[in-house]
Design a protein that fits this description.
The structure holds 2 protein chains of 2 kinds.
Chain A lengths: L2 H31 L5 H14 L3 H8 L4 H9 L8 H14 L6 H15 L9 H23 L4 H23 L17 H10 L3 H8 L5 H10 L7 H14 L6 H16 L2 H4 L4 H24 L6
Helix pairs in contact in A: 1-2, 1-5, 1-7, 1-8, 1-9, 5-6, 6-7, 8-12, 8-15, 12-13, 13-15
Chain B lengths: L20 H9 L2 H18 L3 E2 L8 E2 L3 E8 L1 H25 L4 H4 L5 H5 L21 E8 L5 E7 L6 H14 L1 H6 L8 H10 L11 E4 L8 H11 L2 E3 L4 E4 L2 E6 L2 E5 L1 E4 L22 H6 L4 E3 L5 H4 L7 H9 L6 E2 L3 E2 L3 H9 L4 E5 L8 E3 L5 H13 L4 E5 L5 E6 L2 E10 L1 E4 L3 E3 L4 E5 L13 E8 L3
Parallel strand pairs in B: 3-23, 5-13, 6-7, 6-11, 11-12
Antiparallel strand pairs in B: 1-2, 4-5, 4-20, 8-9, 9-10, 14-17, 15-16, 15-17, 18-19, 19-22, 20-21, 22-23
Helix pairs in contact in B: 3-12
The chains are: A mainly alpha, B alpha+beta.
Chain lengths: 314, 471
């Protein structure tokens, strides 16, 4: 397939996944914000959320001080901020438009309809409105993935779409964990700790609470939540699962210059397949996640070089 | 409005023409707001499917719909047979003319077409002189604009031989009508058009360079910001071929390749939807970012087919149009089945004198204009507009042709006030390869403003589904 087409497909699925990730991150944030908090804690939470997304400086440069309503609009509705939900859905739609001949009509219509709907939405931070909006974003992402799985030929185009989805999925899960960890923090295997409730909320935001109950049949502890989200290979959004998918799909599209990228993806997947949580977290949870995000970023760049925008004509 | 426009649906006494009787009875049985609801449904479907054209210079998301009218334009079987024969004849002659112009130029030597009209024309491409193209076909895809006059006769208004567009609307309009009014298709035997992409692909494959057994075809688009991008993507998808931009292609060792995720892939046929000028920055406009450097040399070597061929603009130029009936006689030895609209060629002194004396009755067109721009409609023009145009004509008579204001036929159309007659034309698509194929019907364009004769979508025109009845 055309390199440019692969590039559009890769970014189309990444942007949908990113919009969903943002919705989940905001959902986790608001669930947490429902707990009784002082104004200091509210501001600290927004710092943590914006910081985990790497956009705290961009936000402060634009708006100066932290206000919950402004921060929400920045992350959800700001068209001038390329990382907002509305911008992601617009970019997903534009990428789909550029390859609408390659994707199925149903896929295109789904992404186009998503954009047409959000285009008419007025930012509303009133009672219930934020929750409804975030849920809408999640369901549109479910729909986009569903129509992809349900209609697309299992060819190269599909592989690149999947690689985009799981790179971004791994990224979102890591950032959500990151928002709940401070430097040097080590999750404990104790349900009585002061943070236990926060970890339950995190599970709910990742649609993983029922899964946790099913797997552990026991109280929620930070250690087990981390284990579930990092090491389980059967949880759709876990780091292990996402890296498995990245590696498998990458192998399926391998070309004669992609060997090193494959090796790195395989190496990353192996750390979860054969690694032990206590070893992975030895430097601290936040430190582990930062390193992981770096490796995911590196894979994204290498995939671009090898497949999407060949630097020199063959 | 000129008098005596032919109504496609109704006879002068107000009863339905035979081929509209079934539809007319159905229409009268419809509750008034059902059509309005259906029309609104069509609009929202077109938006969702994204059958829109981008408006240049406006904000993102300002993608407009071309208005779709729910009342079909119906052609009876015998009229279509006649039209089809006339179109085949005309396109055969046009292709013969192109082959002649770029080889022996016998029609110039015979004095039938003035040599300076060709050789001094910007649409003539000397680069094509002496180049053999597969099957001698230049205009693989032709869109011939046909209108019906007050006498009920068809006339060819214009030949479009460069990158004619609009066929996606023919296909989408049919799909929409079948979705909105399935019962109508049970009652009428409407000739299908859905196979157009298959026919087009077969046509393109049939003109691949000699010796290529399983040709690879791609559609070359200027990109997602082009106003016809929807159509490019749609046709590529329907044919199952790659939709490429100039940046996706490169030339090496006398061949054209696509950049793919698995390395270079050789391309044999390019269905291009960009103009000659932008195809190859080394040969034509040097600042074009849309084309492929070196493409022309590969083409001249016969190692890739470009459809339509480079240089077809010389045959659809308005200054050449008056000579098409003569071409039919010269190349085919036949009498033209479809007449031209009578045309005054203003480089002829007597035609110029007549035109200047009757400017307020005539339509005057720039010979190189397109899309309804650069045109004067005498009866609708103000005194000041007439005077201004008169000066332009006098300054450069050879730059214009003039035609009587045609009473384009009308078809009942759904407008704000209800059903009302609106002027229409018809663009059938003629495909030439190993053989000539015409999918029955084409695109019917309708001038939505009361009395307007301009059907171009850039000037407020809409479209209708076109039905050719099989019996």
């Amino acid at each position: 397939m055309l390199s440019r087409t692969a590039d559009h497909l890769f970014w189309m699925s990444r942007q949908i996944e990113r919009a969903e990730g943002l919705a989940r991150i905001l959902d986790a944030h608001y669930r947490h914000a429902l707990l009784p908090h002082t104004a200091d804690v509210v501001a600290r939470d927004w710092r943590a959320t914006l910081g985990s997304l790497g956009v705290l400086d961009a936000y402060l440069a634009r708006h100066g001080s932290l206000s919950p309503a402004t921060a929400f609009r920045f992350l959800a509705f700001d068209r001038d901020h390329g990382g907002s939900i509305v911008s992601c859905l617009w970019q997903a739609r534009e990428n789909a438009r550029a390859v609408r001949g390659t994707i199925t009509s149903e896929m295109w219509e789904t992404l186009n309809a998503t954009w047409l709907e959000i285009r008419g939405v007025e930012p509303d931070t009133g009672d219930g409105a934020i929750g409804d909006f975030l849920e809408w974003v999640r369901y549109r992402a479910h729909l986009s993935r569903g129509v992809t799985l349900g209609t697309m030929l299992r060819d190269e185009a599909f592989r690149f779409t999947r690689i985009g989805t799981f790179l971004e999925g791994a990224d979102a899960t890591a950032r959500m964990l990151l928002a709940r960890s401070r430097p040097g923090y080590a999750p404990v295997d104790d349900p009585a700790g002061p943070d236990a409730y926060v970890w339950t909320l995190l599970l709910r935001s990742l649609s993983a609470f029922e899964v946790y109950r099913k797997v552990y049949r026991d109280a929620v502890t930070p250690w087990r939540v981390t284990e579930l989200l990092v090491l389980r290979d059967d949880l759709p959004r876990s780091l292990h699962r996402c890296t498995n998918e990245i590696y498998t799909n990458l192998c399926a599209v391998a070309n004669d210059q992609s060997a090193e990228t494959e090796r790195r993806a395989g190496e990353l997947q192996s750390t979860f397949r054969f690694g032990r949580l206590e070893h992975l977290l030895a430097p601290g949870l936040a430190e582990f996640l930062d390193a992981f995000l770096g490796r995911i970023g590196d894979l994204g760049q290498r995939i671009a070089q090898d497949f999407l925008v060949p630097a020199t004509p063959y | 409005m000129p008098p005596h426009a032919y109504d496609e649906m109704l006879l002068p006494d107000g009863s339905h023409r035979a081929h509209y009787r079934g539809y007319g009875a159905w229409l009268q049985s419809q509750l008034p707001d059902r059509l309005a609801r259906r029309r609104a449904e069509a609009d929202s479907l077109f938006h969702r499917v994204g059958i829109t054209f981008a408006v240049y210079g406006e904000d993102e998301g300002t993608e407009r719909l071309i208005p779709f009218d729910v009342v079909p334009r119906i052609l009876p079987a015998d009229e279509w047979q006649f039209l089809e024969a006339g179109l085949r004849q005309r396109v055969r002659a046009l292709n013969a003319f192109l082959a002649d112009v770029y080889h022996e130029q016998s029609i110039l030597h015979a004095g039938i077409v003035p040599a300076e009209l060709i050789l001094c024309n910007a649409q003539y491409r000397p680069e094509m002189q002496g180049i053999d193209v597969p099957g001698g076909i230049y205009a693989h895809i032709a869109g011939i604009d046909v209108v019906r006059g007050g006498d009920g006769q068809f006339h060819v208004l214009e030949d479009n031989l460069r990158v004619p567009s609009g066929v996606s609307y023919m296909l989408e309009n049919r799909k929409m009508m079948m979705r909105l009014f399935p019962e109508l298709f049970a009652r009428h035997s409407v000739a299908p058009v859905e196979h157009y992409p298959d026919v087009l692909l077969e046509n393109l494959r049939s003109v691949a360079p000699v010796g290529v057994a399983d040709p690879t075809v791609a559609l070359l688009t200027p990109g997602a910001h082009n106003s016809a991008y929807f159509e490019h993507a749609f046709l590529a998808q329907q044919m199952g071929i790659e939709l490429v931009e100039g940046q996706d292609l490169f030339v090496r060792d006398d061949a054209v390749y696509m950049r793919t995720t698995r390395g270079p892939r050789r391309l044999d046929v390019i269905y291009r939807r960009i103009d000659d000028d932008f195809l190859d920055p080394l040969a034509f406009q040097p600042d074009s970012m849309l084309g492929v450097p070196g493409l022309l040399s590969v083409y001249r070597a016969g190692r890739v087919t470009i459809a339509n061929a480079i240089g077809t603009g010389i045959a659809d130029d308005k200054s050449i149009y008056p000579y098409v009936p003569d071409m039919i006689g010269f190349y085919l030895g036949e009498t033209p089945l479809l007449a031209n609209v009578p045309t005054y060629v203003l480089r002829r002194p007597e035609d110029l004198a007549y035109t200047l004396a009757h400017l307020d009755e005539l339509v005057v067109k720039e010979v190189h204009g397109a899309g309804g721009y650069g045109m004067l409609i005498g009866p609708a023009a103000t005194r000041a507009e007439l005077d201004a145009f008169r000066q332009r004509i006098i300054a450069n008579p050879a730059g214009y042709i003039a035609q009587p204001t045609l009473a384009l036929s009308t078809c009942p159309t759904f407008v704000e006030a209800g059903l009302a007659p609106r002027h229409i034309d018809l663009r059938p698509y003629v495909l030439s390869g190993r053989e000539i194929t015409i999918v029955p019907g084409g695109l019917t364009r309708v001038a939505l403003r009361d009395g307007s004769l301009v059907v171009n979508s850039s000037q407020g025109g809409g479209t209708k589904d076109t039905w050719v009845l099989e019996r």
